[in-house]
Amino acid sequence: MSVIDISALSGGLKELPPLSLYIHFPWCVRKCPYCDFNSHEAKNGFDEMGYVAALLADLESSLPQIWGRPVTTIFMGGGTPSLFSAAAMDALLCGIRARVRLHPDAEITMEANPGTFESDKFKGYRAAGINRLSIGVQSFDPAFLQGLGRIHNGDEARRAVDIALTHFDNVNLDLMYALPGQTPEQALSDIDTALGYGITHLSAYHLTIEPNTLFARYTPANLPDDERSADMQEAIEARLAAAGFEHYETSAFARAGYQCRHNRNYWTFGDYVGIGAGAHGKISSHAGVLREARYKQPAAYLKAVAAGKPVQEAHKVGRQDLPFEFMLNALRLTGGFEEELFAARTGLPLVLIARELKQAGQDGLLERTGGLIRPSLKGQRFLNDLLTLFLNDGD
Amino acid sequence: MKHIRNFSIIAHIDHGKSTLADRFIQFCGGLDLREMSAQVLDSMDIEKERGITIKAQTAALHYKARDGEVYNLNLIDTPGHVDFSYEVSRSLSACEGALLVVDASQGVEAQTVANCYTAIDLGVEVVPVLNKIDLPAAEPERVCQEIEDIIGIEAIDAVRASAKSGIGIEDILETLIAKIPPPVGDVDAPLKALIIDSWFDNYVGVVMLVRVKDGVIKPKDKIKFMATGAEHLCEQVGVFTPKALQRSELRAGEVGFIIAGIKDIKSAKVGDTITLMKTPAAEALPGFKEVQSQVFAGLYPVESHDYDNLRDALEKLQLNDASLKYEPEVSQALGFGFRCGFLGLLHLEIVQERLEREFDMDLITTAPTVVYELLMKDGEVIHVENPSKLPDPAKVEEIREPIITAHILLPQEYVGAVMTLCNGKRGVQRNMQYLGRQVMLTYDMPMNEVVMDFFDKLKSTSRGYASLDYDFKEYQASDLVKLDILVNSEKVDALSLIVHRQSAQFRGRAVAAKMRELIPRQMFDIAVQAAIGAHIIARETIKALRKNVLAKCYGGDITRKKKLLEKQKAGKRRMKQVGNVEIPQEAFLAILQVGDK
Questions:
Q1: ipTM of the complex, rounded to two decimals
Q2: Sorted alphabetically, which keywords does the UniProt record give (chain A) (predicted)?
Q3: N or C end of chain A: smaller count of CB under 10 Å?
Q4: Does domain B293-365 have CATH number 3.30.70.870?
């Protein structure tokens, strides 16, 4: 991977981290009651080519910040990107290749939701250059799918996976557990169904009640309690381990060689440009680490792009916040990170957080061996407690 | 002197004392309308909010009576709560008369009765006034009868008034002049001035509110405090109208203030007598006593680095409140803090609230306790005011607890429930007296049961109708034990308490159960135990949390994730660490939230 030595300029970062590209697609058929992502029901349809043009204009306005840097991964998330046609995706990827140096080996992931699957369309996506699919299955059980407000049923979920595997060899399934009324057996049954397919990656999320969602306002009464959901998690981890999936991040499991490179770049505190409505970016330079966010409402975003200013909010991450932000990401990796990575990504010496590291070690939350820093099993379970140690209190 | 009337107002909380005082001031032109904030004499925020008077205040008023003469009326506003009975007695002994203000719809309450008896004992003329006469629920005849039945003074011609609407104000003033005798005193005798109250002013130092009994005091006089022996130079004298007004002298019979460049309020004690060094009085005025703290509690800063701020705040409060006692204390559980002594529970609450409000302190207060008297095996008698400091029981011959006599005045229908409550608190009934529709119950009760939660329970049992007055009776030997609370085998000293052996088992179980509710689940199992000595009498387990982790975190909204964790951390910081367990503040008051069996 090519890197550029900018130490002479930054005085901090010796080299710039790998660069990813995130593209947000803000529309869904219907908003799910648990979802707190930037998604909007496409009641009156939307102009897909208009949005593609806006994305490319948005990317162009970011080019000065990433000048010359190769893009190693692309992730098209949503919303529901698979509401877009293969032609639109092809136009988008062509436009991107024309504007940035896309690594020949780049991982290009697209999120897709069952209920939007047609075989031809997915063949087209593959032809456009997309080489990894992430399918929002959530569950194969129709009762739970209905409870989650999903537009698909169990059969459609299975059909979607079949179609995906017909055209793609690198496929992730998103599953959720600790669903209202779910038993550990039912959670495992979903995992088993998923493992019955030749998928390479699986994400198993504990259903979280996020603020400002319908579920936060009308919380389902029969959510499994802490004991039960923890039992589910342990059973799921054991089942996936037995099936040869490595548990490499809090909720992510992969066959050897199939960890999601795009997400790994987030978790190793890499850089990413985020284009599209509400997309977030993190870009390092000689001036430090910059975070920026695009306008969230699709209409506002399109207007802002037309005016040449898609970024709504941008701020430099302060020196005092960098260690926490690094840890917030890096400690999600069960295998941890190499000690040098901290200085390489933050430009700060590791000794700055020696006290916190020591405390975390004493609390049994962190292990340090052979130049690696990693959360212990306890640290993985109580990651929030581990992370709060690195929060800057201003004292 | 015959145109002077010194009087105070006795009234129950909310019966309209402060409003009435305001009307007097207004009527006599003491303040312009624009200067009248509601309830002038209650100057602290807490006083206004709670409708109680904590510090005595005065107003010297000029009233042109119907007989054409101008009278000099000195109103001495007294505190109205059981905790401040000594201050009340000093205020009353500075007067020749007292207005007994009774709410015409609610009738007489225990506190009023107690203060009235104090007044009568001191030879003060009590003049009854029915207030709130314009309320639809007013029953003047019944209430007059009640005053006669309960207090035993003539009340048939009690003035009917409404301070709020301004009805009968002049009638009260006329009655006051007719019934209350003018002060007697000898202007030529050696100076005797009674300190009614004192407080600290940032500009002039200690201000003393005094009643001159004999003699004259002028600026430049060298004065002496007869109880403390302190000597000072009088700098200013004057009266409050209620604005401070300097005068060239204060004479026998008058009420006013003295400023003598005193820095420390402890040398100007309420009840002390001021005399002149040149011509000292032979003996002090009677009735002075050192106030004793009745209730103790530990006050700890939530954040240990606030310790110095807490000390500064206590120091400042003490400038105006000589009855507040404090000394540094170290608790294993709570770190550095102060053991504070209070006159009573209300006093504790007021201090706590002022610290939080005026000084912005974040406090943990331990459950209040009383002072125990211990007879040791070697014959020595010691006092213990902190349960965790109780010596090894093997060395103790007997533990004595303070017993109070409680007078509870309540409507008949609640007698049964209140008696059950008193019996449950180890009370021994001494008397029961039917007074019209009300009943006066007299109980001897262990004070430690009273400071726990008795007052709140009494109020809820009687739907707020019962009123309580109590005074210390004696120390009595009792079968008391120390109950310790252990969290993961570590004794939490701040939670130790002294209880009667009979209720120890129940209390222990109840506190442990309450603690289980109040301590949040953590990364490991937590055992909460209650123990008497080495004997564990109750155990509860708080099961470990299984996990605490965010399911998703990608490149998106890092700021929100950070806020979420900051919130978790802030919650933890408000807890105290005992061993490896984080205990929230509420848990240190768990004992107060425990019911009786």
A1: 0.90
A2: 4Fe-4S, Chaperone, Cytoplasm, Heme, Iron, Iron-sulfur, Metal-binding, S-adenosyl-L-methionine
A3: C
A4: yes
